[in-house]
Each structure stands twice: as C-alpha cells, then as structure tokens.
Amino acid sequence: MSANDSTVLSAAEFMLRQALLGATPLVLAGYGELVAQRAGVINVGIEGLMLMGCIAAYAGAVATQSAAMGVAAAIAVGVLFALLFAIVTIWCRADQIVTGTAINLLALGASTTAWGVLRNSSNNTPPPLFEPIVFGQYWLFFFTLALGVAIWVWLRFTRAGLIVQALGDAPDAANAAGVRVRLWRTLIVLGAGACAGLAGSYLSTMRGHSFQINMTAGAGFLVLALVIFGRWTLPGLVLATLLFGALEGLQAYLSALPNATAHVPHQLFEMLPYAATLIALAALTRSRSGPIYLGRSWPEER
Amino acid sequence: MKRAVLDVAAIGGAIALSIVLVAIGLRVAGYDATGVLREWAVSAGGTQADWAQVFNNACPLIFTGLAAGVAFRCGVFNIGAEGQFLLGSAALAAFATRVWPLQGAESPAYVAMALGILCAGIAGAMWAGVAGVLERWRGVPVVLSTILLNFIALLLLGILLEGPLRTGEHKDLVQSDTLTMAYWLPVGGLGTMHAGIFVAVALAVASWLVQARTAFGFELLTTGLNPVAARLAGVPVASRQLAVMLISGALAGIGGGIQLMGVEGHVLTPTSQAYGYMGIAVALLGRLHPAGIVLAAVFFGLLDRGATGVELTYQLPPEIANIVKAACVLMVLVASAYIGRRQLAVRQR
To answer: What residues of B are in contact with residue A275 (Cβ under 8 Å)?
Structure first.
C-alpha cells in the first residue's frame, strides 16, 4: 500500500467518524420528532428541548458528580418541557408552530440563566463525563442504532404503529375506533421530549465536555428539516442525516486542509449542508406531503 | 370591542402571572425575589436615560415583530426575520460604505439615508422572497426554508465581512467600515434615543392602515383565517402569500438597516442578538396587531433594560428576561386559544 492510499483511507475514515459523531444527536432527536409528526404534532420547540437537555445533563452531572445522573436529568427535563408543549397545544389547542417558537425562547432564557447561576455557585468541580468507546463513538451512538431498529419494528409491525399513522392521517377515525387521540398524542410528544433531552445531553457530556450559551445552535431546527427531507420514514430520516453528516464531515475535512481556506471562504463549506438540504427539499416532488393532520389540533375548532 | 377588552385582560393577566412565577423560581433558587423585582423595575424605567435605552431596545423588535405579525396574520409562518434583518443591515452597510460613502459629511443626509433604507428593505424582501418562491412553486414549507435560510444568511454575512465589506482601518477586526456622519440617525429626545423609533411606529401605523382599511389587507386577513374560503371568494391566495412574504422580509430588512444607522454604526461578526427570533415573541404577545406589537416591543425593551440592572446587583444573567418573555407568550397563547373558541361559541349560539 502506497503512502497515498493510506492518506485517502484516513481521510475517508476521518470523514466517516465525523459524520457519525454529527449524526447521532440529530437522528436520536429525529426519532421523536418523526413519530410525533406522524401522529400529527409538529414540535418546532425541539431546538429548545435539546438545549434544555444540554444544560440539564451538565448541571446534573456537576451536582451529583455522576455523568449517568446528568443523562437522567436531561431526559427528565426534556419530558417536562415536552409536557408543557403538550398541555398548551394538545389540551389547550394553541397553534403548534407558534407554541414551539415560544418554547424555544423559554429554553434559551432558562438554560442561559441556569448556566449563570451554576457558574456563580461554589460547587464548580468539573464532573466526570463520558469518553468514546469504539471508532471514536460514544455509547449513545449504539443506543441510537438499537432504538432505531426498535422504533422501526414498532411503527411497522404493531397495532400501536398503525394507531400512530391514524393519529396523523385520520384522527376522527382513530377516535371512532376507541383510541384516545389526545392521550396518545401527549404520550408520543413526551417520548419525543425524552429523545430530544437525551440528544441534548450528548452535546454537553459526550461530544462536548461543557455547556455553552445556545450550544445547540440550530441543531433542533435541522432535525425538523431532516425529518421532512426523509419523507417521514425512519430509513429516510437516517439516510438524510447521514448525507447531511457526510457533507459536514467533508466540510470539516476540506477546511482542515492547509490551503483550503486561503482561497475559498470557510463559510462556503459551512453553508454546504444547509444549502444542500434546502435544494433537496426543493427538488423533491410534491406528491406526498406528509401526515394529513400535521400541525392541526384535534378536535378541530369548527 | 369586547374582544379587545378580553385580549387586554388576558395579556395583563399573563404578564402578572409570569412575573409571579419568575419570582417564585428566584425564591426557590435562593435569591431575594422582592429585591430582584424592585431592582428590575427601578433600573428599567427609573431615569430618562433608561427610557431612551428602552425605546432603543424596542426599535429593532418593532420591525421584526411587524415582520412576523403581518406574515402570521396571513397564515405564512415566516420565521426567517433573523436572516432578513442581518442581510438588511449588510445591504445598508454595502450602500453606505461602498456605493455612496459621503466622506466628510457633517450632518445627516436624508436622501442618502432613504436610499440606504430602500436597499435594506429590498435585501430583506429578496431573502424572504427565496422562501416565498420555494413555497409557491416547489411546495417547500416556509417554516423550514426560512430556518435554513437563517443559517445561510449568517454565514453569508460572515463572507461579506471578511471579503468585500471588511474595513481597511483595523487589520485585526472583522467588521465593516463605520458609517460616516451622513448616515447616523439623529439622536435626541430623552438624551440618547435615536430617531429610528419614529420610523418603526410610522411603519406600524402604515401596516395597520393597510390591514384594516384596504381591500389588499382584507384579502391578507381572509387568507390567514381560511385559505379555502378565501380562494373560493376569488382571492389569489398563493400570490397574496408570496406578497406578504416580501412585505415581511422588507420590514425585517429595514429594521436591520435602522439598527445599523441608529445604534451599531458598523456590522460586526454576527452575534446572537436574535432580534429576528425575538420578533416572533413580540408579535405573539401583541396578538399580531400593530399597536399590540409596538407595546409588546416596548415591554420587552423594559424587561431587557431592567435585566441589565439585575445583572449588576445580583449577578444574574440578563437572559433571565427571556424567561419572563416566553412565559408571557405561552400564557397569552393559551388564553387566546380559549378566547377565540369562546367567541366562536357565542356567535354560533
């Protein structure tokens, strides 16, 4: 093997590792968002839920000096904020998109304030956090893989999977069949909150080892785009995210090259994944436009 | 009329309840809640200088709030005011530092300013137009495309600041040239308040007139309330939605330009001021009504001004204001969902 071959190989490996590292939280949060959207609930507040997961995981780890407790706190806070979203949208029937943006604002304020309080407090010993296990990946990567298979089977082969479909496409029919539409939707949204909180903990206690203000920086918004880009299917979501992750890996590799940024602004590389997602959305046919009742409250107001 | 009374009561209640909730949270976290609230109120509006700052804070929020408000009322979820605002300021900087710098001017040049604002508005409208066109002809939801376009706008601004707009004065700084005197909005009234607030209020009045007094505005409202009914009544729904997107983007872009001329003076590497995102909250708290939006923006300005005092005295991050804002918005959403249904029920009876 010539020296050239091994550089190519290591470049490919570098990009793959980066892609998987970047994809893990997006896919994990995407599971929850995907199931919720299939059930007719679009949660734009997923960005905020992830951000709360970030701060809760780090603060929990600092307070208990246990990384596992941090993850538990992230899940709990994710569920709590999802519960708030569910109460406002599903039970009070306020608009979902609008409520989601308010949740994002709340999360930005709450996480930044909590971070300020945390830094002021006397307890500032750095907590024990997670390290990669295999191939530069953290345990959450493998958990995400397993959960993906489980959710795919659940959606595809169980009665519950059929109910999820009905919640989004024909909630009245589901109701007539004895399904408690609002309760089901609430539970699904809570599950999605747990996923988003867990995905947030990945950013602050696994891939990153601290909290930064607004550290999700739009990752949750990206999840929304990827779910739709993947046409509301689990394999579609994973493929879309890997494609996005590959572009990010490519961007990381290209901008790490010694001469890359001398001629081309590095922002162009960073733009690549977003522009590609936008173009892909535009290029998709309009044939299947997602769950029929997506974003509509039930029962309808009229 | 009754609707307006209910709305005002709901918003007042929501604000009061949010403040109580935050006070309870502070007490639980071990802070002197009443002390924090008193400090907050005093440093928000204690002096004339505070009020000048409050109005300066409110100014960009009125623009982005109106941008979100007009679009949401038409059922178009433009959450891209952030990107449109940034590119508006970039366009104004490009015009004022590269096209017509007016070196050596001693006083404000109003014609040049107006042209600059026009550039800012066009830039914002074009950026929003990308999302509008993608929705109109490719069926890409505006919610998604505007989110992605926000990211792209931020990076685009970075490219502009490191490239064509970069100042030659300081080698180490990544920012645009500072505007010449010709482009600085007159400052006066309460000491440091700039004239942008008057432009903002004028545009609020204009958008109220269009919404409430013109056929075009009526078509926009109908489209928002029930697109199917609007189409059956002969409203060209798709082109109205595209039009409102352009208007919304122009409002946000103008806001970016005004902020540059009134406060910043030069475009910095983009920071997370998040005027665009905050505009959505302002619009919601103002119940999408132009007057409500102006009041909500001033309220947010007060919260932010007060929070700086709280930060000095109690070492709490000023973002604590965002918690109050979000709590208000959520409660107003819940209240208005109930008010809307109750009114509907009364009318049907």
So the answer is: 148, 152
What is the C-alpha to C-alpha distance for residues B197 and B64, in angstroms, rounded to an integer? 13
Search chain A and give the residue with CA nearest B152. Answer: A271
Please state, in angstroms and rounded to a whole number, the distance separating the CA atoms of residues A211 and A200: 10
Task: Report H helices in chain A.
Answer: 3-38, 46-64, 67-86, 96-120, 139-157, 159-169, 171-176, 181-202, 219-229, 234-256, 260-263, 266-283
Query: Closest-CA residue in chain A for B136?
Result: A282
> What are residue B166's phi and psi, to 5 degrees?
-65, 140
Q: Which sequence spans correspond to the domains of chain A?
A: 7-283
CB contact under 8 A, A109 and B329: no
Is the CATH code 3.40.10 the one for domain A7-283?
Answer: no
- Residue A228 to residues A97, A296, B209: CA-CA distances in angstroms? 15, 17, 38
Tracing tokens 């107003």 back to the chain, one arrives at B332
Q: Do A301 and B341 touch (CB under 8 A)?
A: yes
Could you tell me if A110 and A45 are in contact, meaning their C-beta atoms sit under 8 angstroms apart?
Answer: no
Instruction: Name the DSSP class of A83.
Output: H
> Position of tokens 């122009």?
B250
What's the rounded Cα separation, in Å, for the pair A55 and A77?
A: 9
Task: Give which of B137, B271, B314, B330 to mutate to test A binding, by max A Cβ within 10 Å.
Answer: B330
In Å, how far is B277's CA from the nearest CA of chain A? 8
pLDDT tens by residue, B281-312: 999 999 899 999 999 999 999 999 999 998 88
Q: In sequence order, what are the residues at sequence separation of 6 or more whose Cβ sits closer than 8 angstroms to the Cβ of residue B42?
A: B306, B309
Mean pLDDT of A17-28: 89
Name all domains of chain B by residue range, CATH numbers in brackets: 56-298 (1.10.3470)
Q: Do the beta carbons of residue B84 and residue B127 sit within 8 Å? A: yes
> B147: which chain A residues are within 8 Å (Cβ-Cβ)?
218, 221, 224-225
Q: Is there a contact between B333 and A265 if contact means CB atoms under 8 Å apart?
A: no
* pTM, to two decimals: 0.89
Count of Cβ atoms closer than 10 Å to residue B106 Cβ: 8
**CB within 8 Å: B162 and A278:** no
No. of helices (H) and no. of strands (E), chain B: 13, 0
Write out the two tokens for A72: 């538990």
Using CA atoms of A138, A143, A144, A148 in order, give the dihedral in degrees to the nearest 10.
160
Interface test with B, best of A80, A98, A112 (most B CBs within 10 A): A98
Smallest Cα–Cα separation from A109: which of A246, A260, A213, A244? A213
Residues of chain B with pLDDT under 50: none
- Cβ of A274 and B152 within 8 Å? yes
Q: Which residues in chain B are closer than 8 Å to A301, comparing Cβ atoms? A: 340-341, 344
Q: What is the ipTM of this complex?
A: 0.85
Q: A256: how many CB neighbours lie within 10 A of its CB?
A: 12
Using the beta-carbon criterion (under 8 Å), do A267 and B277 form an inter-chain contact? no
**How confident is the model over B155-180, as pLDDT tens digits?**
999 899 888 888 877 777 788 888 88
Task: State the best of A105, A111, A222, A263 to mutate against chain B, taking most chain B CBs within 10 Å.
Answer: A105
Distance from CA of A63 to the nearest CA of B (A): 14
d(CA A112, CA A116): 6
State residue A302's pLDDT score.
45
